[in-house]
Amino acid sequence: MSEIQQERKDVIKVQQLSDAISERYLAYAMSTIVSRSLPDVRDGLKPVHRRILYGMRQLKLDPKSGYKKCARVVGDVMGKYHPHGDASIYDAMVRLAQGFSVRYPLVMGQGNFGNIDGDSAAAMRYTEAKLSDAALAIMDGLDEDSVDFMDTYSGEEQEPVVMPAIFPNLLLNGSNGIAVGMATNIPPHNVLEVCDAITALIKNPEITIPELVEYIKAPDFPTGGIINQDKQTTISAYETGRGTFKIRAKWEREDLAYGNYQIVITEIPYQVIKSKLIERIADLMEQGKLPTIGDIRDESTEDIRIVIEPKSRTIDEKIIMAQLFSLTELESKFALNMNVLDKNCVPRVMNLKEVLSAYIDHQVEVLTRRTNFRLKNIAHRLEILEGYLTAYLNLDRVIHIIREYDDAKEKLMEEFKLTELQADSILNMKLRSLRKLEEMEIRTEADNLRKEQADLQLLNSDTEHKLKKVSEQVKNMRAVFAKNKKLSARLTQIDETTENIVVPVEAFVPKEPITIILSSKGWIKSIKNHVDLNSDFSFKDGDSLDVALHAYTNDKILFAMSNGQFFTLDANKIPSGRGYGDPVRLMIDLPINASFVRIFVATNDTEIILATKNGYGFKTKMSDCIAQTKTGRQVVNISDDDKLAKVCIIGKDDDSVAIIGDNRKLLVFDLAEIPSFTRGKGVILQKYKEPKTYLADIKTFAKAEGLKWQNGARNFKVDDVSMWSGKRASVGHMPPDGFPKSNKFSKE
Question: Under a CB-based contact definition with an 8 Å cutoff, are residues 705 and 658 in contact?
C-alpha cells in the first residue's frame, strides 16, 4: 500500500448513511432558515437585503447623491458580502424598489423595475439605483458602535449582524419566505399606526393586543384594496401570529348615457398580477361562467383602471361583483404567519405585542451602545481639550520644548503632567491651528461637552430614561413621515360591514324556457321553449314518455325516489337537442332498487308533504331536499316494508289536507297538524285497519274553495267537507259520489 493510500485510509470515517444524511440535512436546513429565508425581528431584514443596503451605503448612494448602475451594486454585494448568484441579489434589490411590492421602498430605482402586470425588470446593466430615506433610517447610527459586526464570507471585510433600524421595517414593509419546514408571511402596515402603537406600548407595557389593534387596525397594502372582515378576526390573527386577512378589490359604478353603466376597478388585492387577473376573467367569460359580463378592458396608465361592461343594464352591479369575488382573485386572502428570528437567531412565531416589544428592546440596546460610544468620544475629546488648555497657558514653553528637545513628547508629559494622548494631540497640531487656540473657545467647548456628558450619563442611568428617549425618537420619525401624505395616508380601507352577497350559480345562467323530457327507460333531455306536454316526443325503440315538465335553464330539478332519497340536476346541464338525450344515471347516482316518485322544479320557499306507502309523512321545504352532490340526499327515513309514495306540493293558500287509501277511505284534516322536519320518518297521516292497505293519494287545498278532483274528462267539487273531516291519523269515510275508482285526485 502506497503512502497516499495509507493517508486516505487513515482519514476515512465510518458512519451510518442515515446519520450522515440527517446531520448534513439539518445543517442545510438551519442555514436556509437563518441565512436566507426568515427575517430578523429586530430590523425586519433577511441577510440578502441587509447586505444590499450596506453595500449601497458603502458606495455612498444616499438619497441626495446620484444614481449608480445596479450592476455595480450587485457586483459589490456579491463580491464582498453575499456569496450567491447575481440574479438572486438583483431580484431582491428590485423588490425593494417596487412601490407595489413594498409599502415603503428602501431603494430608489431609475429605469424599468417591473410593473404590477408581472413584467420583470430590465437587466441590471440598464437600471440604476440609490438608497431611500427609509433605508437611511434603518442604518442610522451604524458608525456609532450601535450593533455588532462580523467577518464577511471571505474574511477580508466586515458587515453588520443586524441594522440599528429605528425604522420598524418588519411591520412596515412585511416579509415573506419559505425555509425548510417553515415559512413566514408578514403583511405591510401603516407607519403612523405602527409608531402610535409603539408609543402606546412604551407608555403602558401591560397593554393588550385588542388595545394595540385600536392603533394598528389592520395591514396597509401598497396596492390598496379593502380588507373585508370583522375586528375579532383581525385581533385573533394578531394574538396568535397566524391568521388570514380577506382583501377585496376597490370598485365603483360609473353611470353612462341611456341608463347604461360600467364597473371600474381602481385597486386590486396585494400580490395579484393585473394581467393574469384580466386573463382569468376573460377565460371565465369565454367558458360561459360569467354570462352577465359583456366585455372587459384594461384602461390602466399609472393608476389601475379595469373596466367591466355588463351584458344588460338591468343586472345589479353588486351581483356581478359578488360573482367575480367568488371566481377570481379580485378577492384574495393574505395568510399571516409572523415566523421570525429572535435576537438569539431562534425561529418562532410571535404575536403583535411580541414583535413590537422586540423592536423596543432592540432600540433600547442600540440607544445604550450609541450613548456609550458618544460618552467614550466625549471623554476622549475632553482629555484632548485639557491638553490644549495646558498648551495655551504655557504656549511659549511648549514651543520651546518642541524646538529644543528631540524627545519633546516625553518632556511635555513630564513637565506638564500630560497623558500620551494629550502630548500626541499637541505635537500633531498644525501651526495654523495655533491662532484658534484661545482659552475661551476651549473652555466653552469643554463646558458644552461636560453638559452633554451629564445628560448622556443620566440617560444611561436607568431603563425608564432610555424608553422615554426611544419614544421621542419614534415620535420624531412619525412627524417626518406625517409630512408626506403619500407615505402616511392609509391606502387599504377597512370595512367590517360590507355585505357578503352569496349568489347561487344558477342566478348567472340565462333564464330561458325549456321543456324537460324523461323517458320510461331513464333517458333525459331538454327542448328549447315551453312546448305542449302532450306532443309526440321521439324516443328509442321500445321506450316511451315517463315525465314531461316545463322549466327554465336556471332552475334546479328535483328527483324524489321511492327509497326516500332526493337528487338534484341543474336544468342548464341537461343535454339539449333533437337526440334522445343521455341516461340520467350518468348524471346522478340513482339507486338500483328505487323508482321515481316525482320529478319537479325546486323553489326554495315552497313546502311539500312527503308521504309513505304506509301512511306516514311530514312537511319540509324544497330547499331542504336539494342535494349538493351526485350521491343525493336522504330526506325520508324508510323502513324495510315501506317506501316514499307521494310528494305533494303545498299551494300558497292551502290550509287543509285530503288523503285517501286504497281501501277508499277519505280523510280531511288541517294542514297545521302535520309537523315540519328536514329529515325523518314522519307521523301517521291516515290509519289503515285492514291488512295490506296503503296510501293511494294525497293533496292539499283551501277549505274555503272546496275539495276538487278529476274523473276522466270531468271535474268535480265538494264545498262542504265536514263529513270527511277529522283529526290526523284517523281512518276516514267513503269518498263522495263521482270519485274515481283509481282513488286518485287527478290524472297522472
Answer: no
What is the per-residue pLDDT for 220?
Answer: 96
> How many CB atoms are located within 10 Å of the residue 512 CB?
13
pLDDT averaged per 10 residues in sequence order, the chain, 748 residues: 58 73 64 75 94 96 94 95 92 95 96 94 96 95 94 92 95 88 91 96 96 96 94 95 95 93 96 95 88 91 93 85 92 94 90 96 96 94 89 84 87 88 85 66 90 91 92 95 92 80 59 89 91 87 90 91 94 84 90 90 90 95 92 92 94 94 94 94 92 92 92 89 93 92 84
pLDDT at 712: 83
Q: Is 126 a catalytic residue?
A: yes
Spell out where 18-173 has E strands: 68-69, 107-110, 128-131, 149-151, 158-160
CATH of residue 410's domain is 1.10.268.10
If one counts every other C-beta atom within 10 angstroms of the C-beta of residue 254, the result is: 11
- Distance CA(343)–CA(147), nearest Å, equals 12
- Give the model's pLDDT for residue 27: 63
Distances (CA, A) of 128 to 61, 76, 92: 11, 14, 14
Domain end among 313, 329, 345: 329
Determine phi and psi for 4, rounding to 5 degrees.
-65, -45
CB distance 367 to 359 below 8 Å: no
Rounded to 5 degrees, φ, ψ at 84 are -135, 180
- The Cα 264–Cα 247 span in angstroms is 17
H/E segment holding residue 493: strand 493-494
Helical (H) or strand (E) element with 287: none
Q: Which residues contact 110 (CB under 8 A, 6 or more apart)?
A: 67, 127, 128, 129
- Decide if 723 is inside a domain: yes
Greatest Cα pair distance, the chain, in angstroms, is 151
CA–CA separation, 443 and 294 (whole Å) = 83
Beta strand 493-494 pairing with 226-227: parallel
Retrieve residue 697's grid coordinates: 293519494
Task: Please check whether residues 269 and 132 belong to one and the same domain.
Answer: no
Among 488, 523, 548, give the residue marking a domain's end.
488
Its domain, for residue 534, covers 509-593
Identified catalytic residue from 28, 126, 153, 405: 126
Residue among 552, 545, 551, 555 at smallest CA distance from 596 = 545
Q: Which pLDDT does position 26 carry in this prediction?
A: 64
The pLDDT assigned to 554 comes to 83
367 and 301, same domain (yes or no): no
pLDDT confidence of residue 80: 94
Map residue 377 onto helix, strand or coil.
Answer: helix
Predicted local confidence at residue 503, as pLDDT: 59
Measured between alpha carbons, how far is 124 from 226 in angstroms, rounded to an integer?
35
* Whether residue 583 sits in one domain with residue 668: no
- pLDDT of 577 reads 74
The three cell numbers of residue 179 are 425555509
Cell of 141: 447610527
pLDDT for position 32: 62
Task: Give, in degrees to the nearest 5, the angle at Cα 213 between 496 and 207.
Answer: 150
Q: Please list, residue by residue across 596-611, b when 16 or more beta carbons sit within 10 angstroms of its beta carbon and e when fewer do.
A: bbbbbbbeeeebbbbb
> Is the Cβ–Cβ distance between 195 and 475 less than 8 Å?
yes
607 and 748, same domain (yes or no): yes
- Contact between 298 and 268 under an 8 Å Cβ cutoff? The reply is no
**β-strands 596-601, 242-248: how paired?**
unpaired
Grid cell of 616 as nine digits = 306516514
537-572: string of b/e by CB count within 10 Å (b at 16+)? bebeeeeeebbbbebbbbbbbbbbbbbbbbbbbebb
Looking at residue 506, what is its pLDDT?
A: 55
- Which residue in 585, 623, 609 sits closest to 659, CA to CA? 609
Statement to judge: residues 687 and 721 lie in one domain: yes
Determine the residue type at 35.
Answer: S
Residue 37 DSSP class: I
